[in-house]
Write a structure and sequence with these properties.
The complex is a heterodimer of chains A (502) and B (245). In chain A, 29% of the residues lie in helices and 16% in strands. With 502 residues, chain A is an alpha/beta fold. Chain A has two domains: 10-94, Alpha-Beta Plaits (2-Layer Sandwich); 165-499, TIM Barrel, CATH 3.20.20.70. In chain A, strands 11-21-20-18-17-14-13-12 form an eight-stranded parallel sheet. In chain A, helix 4 crosses helix 14 (442-467), helix 8 (318-327) crosses helix 10 (357-370) and helix 11 (388-397) crosses helix 14. Chain B is an alpha/beta fold. Chain B has a domain at 93-233: Pectate Lyase C-like (3 Solenoid), CATH 2.160.20. Chain B contains three helices and eleven strands, in the order E-H-E-E-E-E-E-E-E-E-E-H-H-E. Chain B has helices at 11-23, 199-216, 220-223, and strands at 2-5, 28-35, 49-55, 65-71, 85-90, 106-109, 130-133, 146-152, 174-179, 192-196, 229-233. In chain B, strands 1-2-3-4-5-6-7-8-9-11-10 form an eleven-stranded mixed sheet, with helices on both faces. The longest helix of chain B is centred in the last third of the chain and has 18 residues, at 199-216. Classes of the chains: A alpha/beta (502), B alpha/beta (245). Chains A and B meet through helix 3, strand 5, helix 5, helix 6 and helix 7 of A and loops of B.
Amino acid sequence: MFKSQAPPIFRATIDTDKCIRCKRCIQNCGWSTYSWGGDRVQIDTSKCVNCLRCYHYCPTEAIEILKEETRFKDNGYWSYNHIRNIKRQAETGGIPLTGMGCDREGTILFDHLMLDACQVTNPSIDPLREPMELKTFLGKKPSKLEFTKDKNGKRKLVTKMPPNLELAAPVIFSPMSYGSISLNAQKVLARAAKECGILMNTGEGGLHEDLKPYTSNIIVQVASGRFGVNPEYLNAGVAVEIKIGQGAKPGIGGHLPGEKIPLEVAKARMIPVGTDALSPAPQHDIYSIEDLRQLIYAIKEATNYKPVSVKIATVHNVAAIASGIVRAGADIVYLDGFRGGTGAAPGIIRDHLGIPIEHALAAVDDRLRQEGIRNEASIIAAGGIRSAADAAKAIALGADAVAIGTAALMTMGCTLCGKCYTGNCSWGITTQRPELTARLDPEVYAVRLSNLIRAWVHELMEVLGALGVNAVESLRGSRERLRGVGLDAQTLDMLGIKPAGR
Amino acid sequence: MFEIDAKDKYYRDLNEEVRAAVDSGEKDIRLKNVNGQYYLATGLRGKVNITIEGVPGNDLSAFMDGPTVNIKSNAQDNIANTMNAGKIVIHGSAGDVLGYGMRGGKMHIRGDVGYRVGIHMKGVKRQSPTIIAGGTAGDFFGEYMAGGVLILLGLDSPEESPIVGDYLGTGMHGGTIYIRGPVQQKYCGAEVGVMETDADDKKVLEKHLKEYCADLGLDLKEVMSRPFKKLIPVSSRPYGNLYAY
């Protein structure tokens, strides 16, 4: 075998004076970076992905993961990744695959948006001592409410309320399937969703038996591969989501590599062990809004009219598409921006297709309002929500709730190494290797994930308090409470916000 | 026999009536004057026979789990979408995208079928879906197939005349397709191997076709009289070498 001209990116090092030869690094690395050389640990640094599992489990802090110093000559135009990809492509003829969301620098609109606060002329609220409501309902809202008066003059609501999902906070977990992540990782999401009164989403890989106690906090997903979908599954959760697209890979389908299809996953998906599970780009029964309507109502017929969500990647024409989705009968429109994460996507697709969630959200909210159908569906914003601040800004731009995937995985140990597609995740998250998944204790990590949600809830309350409102409802779509810093006139116009200072 | 007159009924009301009848324990239901109503028997569960007179609309028996549906005439698109168990017998022809993601049960069609039939069919040992079509099929027959059995008979076509369209079994990675007629490799997906049938295949075919012939009043001997080709995936990972990292 010839030596690859794509040099290692990281240099794993062990201080032999500090090393006590406990071999924990060898056990912990899912990439076989370390091996036992008789008297000391040997390192094959080309295998290191900088996931820091070994570093965290080294009892003597002997391990350091450094950036490989030997690099191609710096070039302001040809980035390191450009050169490295060309070398690898020349060697393999293949497509560079990536995991997690787009990591390229560039304008991040959230960072150019500033929220308002109360000073002097209007009172802010102290959320620690005054009531603050984050409760969120997802689903259709009636366009008007009708009441009758009974003989005592008491008003009674006669409008039939459409089914809605009740969340304790405007944050849910984004769809991640059994297969793409481990069952233990799904259990973490399910437990935390229950604990926090929010929702997790099965993704397209079926509902494992072990998740059944959590179904009142689960949305089940139907996608083009139809993996794990049967009437019991459709009726198990509180809602059904049709996945059309994913922000990290708009226009292309799911591809769960054979390495991540052991017997259990194969059984759940009803496909042979070790084959690649293909969810093709198109759902071949959906070529139009009318076809989408047909599937939405097939699901409603099969579930006695549970809410149906439709998830799309945010692409150029997202506003018109979202309008079609709402008119097709969806109760929820899930917008997944181009920064959204993934278990596996070709780099070219992940990094170059789609538009940012901030733009999509503003455009969709505008369009639905203009058409007078904003009440017909809730909007979930996803695709790169990194903090409660991003969530607050997304809500101000028009989202009913946000969905987080990457942030949730980080509570389980994920360090964004981006190698999810290999199935070797040393943290036991994006792998099906039993010796790796066993290290992710659902009970322990559900506490950490619940902590994150609790922390974000407190942060959101602080922001609402500063804004002088006592319910997240009052921030929803309230773009007057946002200002743009360092954005050009057209971007401000598209986002429907004023520049700072005005 | 419990009769429901579907004349001028909106699908939602009609389906509610059907579900109510099933819930009240009816085992044999006849739907008269059906005229294009969507979603008949969609999501329906349990052991019940439903006979449909008239042409049912799209998404018949989607997610169905158990019932037997007998259609006396032609049927439309998207039948047996992600169907889990049960049986559909269609005495006429049917449209496109039949049995999408089908996971179990049987669909027996006497006539022709359209494009993308049996795509994404799945199966594990005990649960394996079957679609048998008596006439011809359009392009993308058995696309992305991961399990189950697809049989195409071309009963009304002269021997040697093609009975299936282009891109046969594209992306196939499991399951088996049997074609009673000529198959040219150039019209198949790259993932598909075309083989001759052997004695074991004959047993499989006879088992499936015996029931099919009984359902539709056909002669098994005559159906078995022409040679079948067998199509199976040649690689479990056709795209294994697609990636550089």
